[in-house]
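Student: I would love a firmer grasp of how sequence relates to backbone shape in proteins. I am handing you a single protein, as its sequence and its fold in token form. I am told such tokens are a discrete way to write the fold. I hope you can help me see how the letters and the tokens relate. Take your time, and here it is.
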Amino acid sequence: MARLASRGTHRVAAAVARILSPPYVVSLVWVVACLTTSADPRVRLTCLAMGLVFLVAGPYLTLAVLLRIGAVSDAQVVRRAERHWLYGLILVWVMMGAAGLLIIRAPSELVAVAAAMFTGLGLVGLANLVTKASSHLATLAGAAVVLWLLWWPAGVCCALAVPLAGWARVDEGRHSWPQVILGTVLGGMGGACYLLYARV
């Protein structure tokens, strides 16, 4: 908190962090995943809608509710102690989304994408029990790995955005460099699990 309070207004960094925020990154991953699968168009559309509801809208509606009732003090959830409930509820949303995909017999690669996202979030959640890791960087790094495997041009764009997002989070005072690096490593590990899940 002292680090954040010592920083002034950094409009460029704030804009970068907003553009590369988890909702947009997760939406990009899911849209690319649904477009690149060879499933029937109706199946792809159903999976797209389900993913956007459970993997994007649900988690960020949860954040909005927690903000409104005062369970978290800001949209960035800077205080580590406030993240536990949020991460737990987001994990529930992701699990429901993955279960829904299994129920409708979604293509295995889409289930693998959801599972990889779940793994990355779980790793960051565990890390935040003892330290602080950047969820922005975890999401972006995981997306870079998954998208590289699905459609490499999008993966390259995400990978190039990782250092930019890291600079923005540090420049704003939201994270230190070790927290940014930890988030990047954990997110990358979660994204790499796609290879394992896709073979199951």
About this structure: The longest helix spans residues 41-69. The chain is about 80% helix and 0% strand.
